[in-house]
């Protein structure tokens, strides 16, 4: 049907008729090439009626092209609606590696962390320019990406978190699939997940 967006409940009730929406949503995210907007059951059942669904959008970015999958969608929303956008870049202070003995991690040096923070600031400034005169500001944090996304969502009272559903790892890049999965299961904010194009680098 050439659908542009799937909107689903991220959690639900099991039974003969109702879907077990948590499991269904996970399957759709993994297999669908179409962007998916997941609405939390607690949000949908709330008696509070939001003034605007996309009034404030949090866009986490990891510095990679695959991590920018949701960027064009957020820019489209901003053009159509009066939105505020927060661009978030989280610099990890721990390097995750796979060794013969299994997963392991090492702390980055202070010099490495400072270099990555400087690169992240330049990246955020450059990316923010794509929004022209739109209401956009940038935030740089250090730590665990998923935890910082969830924490900032609550602090800024954002309406939607928009991010890539998949990505690739690297020296300063998140494993976006893992991060988005954690945000999906532990977050409380509606989540727009966009799968990167197959040609993304």
Shape: globular
Helix-strand makeup class? alpha/beta
Query: Which series of helices and strands comes N to C?
Result: EHEHEHEEEHEHEHE
Q: In angstroms, what separates the terminal alpha carbons? A: 28 Å
Helical residue percent band: 25-40%
Strands across the major sheet, in which order? Answer: 1-2-9-8-3-4-7
Which value, in Å, is the CA radius of gyration?
17 Å
List the total number of helices. 6
Strand tally: 9
What characterizes the major β-sheet? 7 strands, mixed
The assembly state of the depicted protein chains is: single chain
Summarize the structure.
The protein is of the alpha/beta class. The chain has 6 helices and 9 strands, in the order E-H-E-H-E-H-E-E-E-H-E-H-E-H-E.
């Amino acid at each position: 049907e050439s659908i542009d967006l799937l909107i689903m409940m991220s959690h639900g009730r099991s039974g003969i008729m109702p879907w077990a929406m948590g499991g269904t949503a996970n399957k759709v995210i993994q297999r669908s090439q179409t962007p998916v907007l997941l609405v939390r059951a607690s949000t949908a059942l709330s008696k509070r009626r939001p003034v605007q669904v996309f009034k404030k959008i949090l866009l986490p970015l990891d510095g990679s092209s695959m991590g920018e999958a949701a960027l064009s969608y957020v820019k489209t929303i901003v053009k159509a609606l009066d939105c505020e956008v927060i661009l978030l870049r989280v610099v990890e202070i721990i390097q995750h590696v796979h060794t013969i003995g299994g997963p392991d991690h090492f702390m980055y040096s202070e010099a490495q962390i400072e270099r990555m923070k400087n690169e992240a600031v330049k990246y955020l400034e450059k990316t923010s320019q794509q929004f022209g005169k739109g209401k956009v500001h940038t935030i740089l944090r250090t730590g665990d990406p998923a935890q910082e996304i969830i924490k900032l969502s609550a602090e800024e009272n954002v309406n939607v978190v928009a991010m890539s559903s998949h990505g690739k790892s690297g020296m300063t890049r998140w494993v976006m699939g893992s991060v988005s999965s954690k945000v999906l299961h532990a977050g409380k904010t509606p989540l727009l997940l966009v799968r990167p194009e197959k040609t993304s680098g």
